[in-house]
Amino acid sequence: VTDAPCAGFDEKLAADIKIEPSDPMPDAYRKTLIRQISQHAHSEIVGMLPEGNWITRAPTLKRKAILLAKVQDEGGHGLYLYAAAETLGVSRDTMVAALLDGSAKYSSIFNYPTLSWADIGVIGWLVDGAAITNQVPLCRCSYGPYARAMVRVCKEESFHQRQGYDLLVAMMKGSPAQRAMVQEAVDRWWWPVLMMFGPHDQDSVHNGTSMKWGIKRFSNDDLRQKFVDATVPQAEVLGVTLPDPDLKWNAERGHYDFGAIDWEEFWQVVKGNGPCNRERMAARIKAHEDGAWVREAARVHAEKKIARPTH
Ligand code: 3HC
């Protein structure tokens, strides 16, 4: 891996011109994009599992249809992002193998269980809400295929966030038991959602280079703060409390102050010791094994097509 200067790369970055697959680029730029985009794709695919758990148990046909559409969207986002990563010269098989052997990461948030129907609303509202905060700036990422993929992904994420909030509004208008169910889910998801944005900037391995190369437009902490500032008023409208006694408006800063994040929990989950890591990986490995015959059939079909004489 060499970092020899690449003709035109720095000039294009400086002029905010997108870097395209055929452009010269430093190996380290290519490498960190393959890392981030493939892990983003893994997150989308694994992210289908927590919500998929409730498709057969949705309370109405309307909610079932909405949840089906959302989970299907996440699968599409994963495929979109794998395709964007492939433009950097990595194969789908290589990326999937890295997920299944545990050498690649996916977002920590998907290692938590979905214990009640309210979780589905809270995931839409908070997890997809955090995803939007993190992903809208990626529409301006310096790497063309990633930025363009994110435009469509973000449009669909907005639907995901709205349907989640709408679900919770309906429940908060319901019985005391339904209201309590929502509050209990918010209490479980709030802190893991703040962890989604990654370590504090001073502990972020990639922040510096990702900002220098225009992959990241804002730091982890900036986006986390933006999310908190936007979400607290939504929680007030919804009528839920957020489980942080230190959460309060700081007029001097013009932002909400909030409590300390449990980074021990974060790193334990990232290392594979979260509540559902084993279950999620087992499900992905089984799905991959069950799909082997489809991949084999597609391979043989493609070979036959190539071998068939063109008239
Ligand atoms: N879960 C797991 N690993 C995480 C993490 C998280 N929430 N946050 C950070 N990490 C990892 C990083 O991947 C990195 O490890 P690596 O070198 O092995 O890749 C390490 O912790 C240090 O973190 P950094 O801050 O230095 O890493 P990044 O600069 O890559 O920042 C990020 C992390 C903010 C997640 C960034 O990678 C990013 O913006 N990725 C694209 C968006 C994304 O992947 N979102 C995940 C959720 S997808 C989703 O929500 C789908 C929606 O439909 C619900």
TrEMBL record:
Domain of life of the source: Bacteria
Gene3D superfamilies: 1.20.1260.10
GO cellular component: cytosol
GO molecular function annotation: phenylacetyl-CoA 1,2-epoxidase activity
Listed transmembrane segments: none
GO biological process: one example: phenylacetate catabolic process
InterPro entries, sorted: Aromatic_CoA_ox/epox, Ferritin-like, Ferritin-like_SF, PaaA, PaaA_PaaC
Name recorded for this polypeptide: Phenylacetate-CoA oxygenase, PaaG subunit
Organism: Aquitalea magnusonii
The organism's taxonomic lineage, starting at the top: Bacteria, Pseudomonadati, Pseudomonadota, Betaproteobacteria, Neisseriales
